[in-house]
Amino acid sequence: MSSHNNGWRSAAVSTGTTIIAVRYDGGVVIGSDSRASMGGEYVSSRVINKVVQVHDKIFCCMSGSLADAQAVTNAAIHKLNFHSMQMGEPPLVQSAASIMREFCYKHRDELSAGFIVAGWDRKRGPQVFEVSLGGMVVEQEFTIGGSGSTYIYGYMDAKFKPGMTREQCLTFTTNAITLAMDRDNVSGGVVHLAVVTESGAERQLIPGNKLPVFSRVLLVNEYLGIQVRVVVRGNAFESFWRAQSTRRVVRRV
Amino acid sequence: MAMAMAMNRIQHLSASNILVPDWTSQEVSTGTTIMAVEFAGGVVIGADSRTTTGAYIANRVTDKLTPIHDRIFCCRSGSAADTQAIADVVTYQLGFHSIELDEPPLVQTAANLFKEMCYRYREELTAGIIVAGWDKRRGGQVYTVPVGGMLVRQPVSVGGSGSTYIYGYVDSNYKSGMNKEECLKFTAGALSLAMERDGSSGGVVRLASISEEGVERVVILGNQLPKFSSA
C-alpha cells in the first residue's frame, strides 16, 4: 500500500476494525465498530456495518481489506444458501465457517481478510468460530478480531466469565468495543450489535453519544508548576473543551 | 563498517545454515511490558522480566526497573543495550546535578535528561522509557519518554510491546485516588494479563513503590501471579 506519496488517495479501503463475538447459554452476541478507513488517514465510511447476516441465524463479522471481506462474504452467502436448499434445513454454523475458510485458504495469497462466524443451529446450539487470515478455523467461547482487538486482550482476559447472561454479554461486548475504539485510530463510530438465539436474530445500534464513558483524566497547566488534574466525564470532544476552559479557573469536576 | 559486514556474514550464515540459530544475529531487545502509576504520596512501577534475542530468551529474570537516583527510577523497554547506556549516562548527569544543587533532584529533571538524550539521538536509538519517582516539590510523578523522544507526564503509563494488550484493561480499571495497595494490585494484574498475551513478555513481575519513606521492591513469581479466567 503506497500511502506515502498520495496519502489516502492511493490506499486501499480497509476495515481497520474491532470485531467481537461472545457465546452465552442461550445464544451469541456479536459486535463491531463502524469505521472504514483508507491509509489510516481518511475515514471513507463512518457508518459501515461489519456484522453481515449470512443466513437466518448465522452472522459473520468482517475485518481486514473491505473489498476482500465483502467478496468472500457475498460468495459465502450464495454458497450457504445453495447448501441449505440442497439439505432442506437451516445450515450449521460450522458449515458457514467451513465455507468461509475454504475461500480464505484457497486464495490465501490474494486475500487479506479475517472473519468471525457466529450463530445458532439446532445441532449444537450457539457457536462462535474464528476464521483467521490464512484460513485457520478455531471454535471459541468468545473471540476478538481486527486491529483494535490488540488493545482489549487484557480487558477480555480479565473480564470474561463463563456463564454470563445475555445482558451481561451485551454490556461486556459494548464496553470492549468502546475501549478499543478509544485507543485504535482506525476503529470508531457507532457500535453495531446482533444477538442470535433459537428464536431468531435481533440487531441493535448504539450511537456514539450513548456509549459507556470511562473517565478521562487530563493534566492541565503543568508549566506554571501547578498541577490541575481535571477528571471530566463526557466524550472526548467535550472533555477537551472543558479542560481548555478550566485553565484559568481551578475546578474539581 | 567492518562490524556491519561481519554481521551480514553471520546473518547470511545463519539464514542458510540450520546449525546456526537465527537468534545469534539478532539484537538483544527488552520486548517487554512496563507500567507506572501515580498515587498520593508516591508512585508504583512494575515490569516483566524477559529479555529476548529473537526467539531465544536471553535473560528470564531481568530487572528492568533501574534506579537513577535515591527516589527516581526508570523502566526500560526497547533495545537492552540502548536503554542501559542511556540510563548510565543519565544517572551520571543527575548525580552530578544533584551534588551541584545540594539537594535531591526533581523527577522532572531526570525525565528531561532522558528526553534530551532520546530526542537528540532518535535516529540511532530504540528506547521507550518511563521515568517515575518522588520528589518534595510535586510528590509522586510519572513521565513517559517513548521512542522518538516525546516527554509527557501522565497519571498512569504503560509501555513496551506488551502494553498494547492492556490499554483496554488500564483505561477501564484506572481510577484516580487509589492508594498504594490498590496501585500495586492494579499494576500486578495488568502486567500479568500482558505477559499472558505477549510473547516477548514473561517471567516474573517486578514491582517497586517509591515514596518519601523510600523504595520498596517486590517480586511476584510465576506461580503467584494473579489468575484470570479466559477462553
From TrEMBL, chain A:
It comes from Aldrovandia affinis. PROSITE patterns: PROTEASOME_BETA_1, PROTEASOME_BETA_2. GO terms for cellular component: cytoplasm; nucleus; proteasome core complex, beta-subunit complex. The active site is at residue 17. Belongs to the peptidase T1B family. Component of the proteasome complex. It comes from the Eukaryota. Keywords: Cytoplasm, Hydrolase, Immunity, Nucleus, Protease, Proteasome, Threonine protease, Zymogen. The proteasome is a multicatalytic proteinase complex which is characterized by its ability to cleave peptides with Arg, Phe, Tyr, Leu, and Glu adjacent to the leaving group at neutral or slightly basic pH. The proteasome has an ATP-dependent proteolytic activity. This subunit is involved in antigen processing to generate class I binding peptides. Component of the proteasome, a multicatalytic proteinase complex which is characterized by its ability to cleave peptides with Arg, Phe, Tyr, Leu, and Glu adjacent to the leaving group at neutral or slightly basic pH. The proteasome has an ATP-dependent proteolytic activity. The keyword Cell membrane does not apply. It catalyses: Cleavage of peptide bonds with very broad specificity. This is Proteasome subunit beta.
UniProtKB/TrEMBL annotation, chain B:
This is Proteasome subunit beta. It comes from the Eukaryota. Belongs to the peptidase T1B family. It is found in: Cytoplasm; Nucleus. It catalyses: Cleavage of peptide bonds with very broad specificity. Component of the proteasome complex. The active site is at residue 32. Its main location: cytoplasm. Signal peptide: none annotated. GO terms for biological process: immune system process; proteolysis involved in protein catabolic process. One of its GO terms (molecular function) is threonine-type endopeptidase activity. Component of the proteasome, a multicatalytic proteinase complex which is characterized by its ability to cleave peptides with Arg, Phe, Tyr, Leu, and Glu adjacent to the leaving group at neutral or slightly basic pH. The proteasome has an ATP-dependent proteolytic activity. Keywords: Cytoplasm, Hydrolase, Immunity, Nucleus, Protease, Proteasome, Threonine protease, Zymogen. GO terms for cellular component: cytoplasm; nucleus; proteasome core complex.
